[in-house]
Amino acid sequence: MATVYEIIQGLSQAAANAYDGALNEEGESVLAGLNREDGNPLIDRRVIDGFNVRFFGNKMILAYHSETKLKEVYKRGFEDDIDQTLNDVASFLKKEYKSITKNSVSLKQEGETDIRVESSSRVRTWVTAVRTYIIEGVSTKTTVPQYSSDTLQDGYKKFLELGDWKGKRPDNDTRSKDGEQ
Predict the structure, then answer these.
(1) How many domains does the chain have?
(2) Quick check: is 178 in a domain?
(3) For residue 106, is it within any domain?
(4) pTM for this structure?
(5) Crossing angle of helices 4-16/78-101, nearest 10°?
């Protein structure tokens, strides 16, 4: 069984392998389920979209970002399209993780997908979607070291004693002991 560090490292590497223009071992484009992969990149207008992953305990948070048009937002099934894109990205991550580590990983969706559409003008509109997955097989128990205030307090006291007028002064200090020069 893989450690938590190895699982997170494998999923991070799988996400890193999906950059725009990535090629697999056969020289073919890597398909992660994003909209930028559709069409001909030389002729068609480029769709700017991508995803990232971050980790919190035994959870992986998958965030997707894309440019969109308002007519696509108001079209029926927009949320289903975003959900399908997130499912495609998650399946890509699982497949890429398996090819990297030779082990499988199980991701279980937790809660609903948070989809937010924002616009900066009548022309520029983008969508941001966030979904949380529970990484199966990762323990939620962590050990937190006990905080010790003694070492900090002692070190601080020693530091303050060095700078005080009563502390030891260097040999070349010619100031008077009462602070007047």
Answers:
(1) 1
(2) no
(3) yes
(4) 0.68
(5) 120
Show the 3-state SS of the chain.
Answer: CCCHHHHHHHHHHHHHCCCCCCECCCCCECCCCCHHHCCCCCCCCCCCEEEEEEEECCEEEEEEEEEECHHHHHCCCHHHHHHHHHHHHHHHHHHHHHHHHCCCCCEEEEEEEEEEEEECCCCCEEEEEEEEEEECCCCCCCCCCCCCHHHHHHHHHHHHHHHCCCCCCCCCCCCCCCCCC
- State which residues form the domain around 126: 4-135
- CA–CA gap between residue 101 and residue 94 (Å, rounded): 11
Q: Which of 9-13, 76-80, 145-149 has the highest mean pLDDT?
A: 76-80
Query: Does a structural domain hold residue 161?
Result: no
Cβ neighbors of 102 (< 8 A, separation 6 or more) are none
Amino acid at 150: D
Residue 149: inside a domain, yes or no?
Answer: no
Sorting pLDDT into bands at 50, 70 and 90, what band is 180? low
pLDDT digits (tens, 9 = 90+) for 62-116: 999 988 888 888 889 999 999 999 999 999 899 888 988 888 888 999 999 999 9
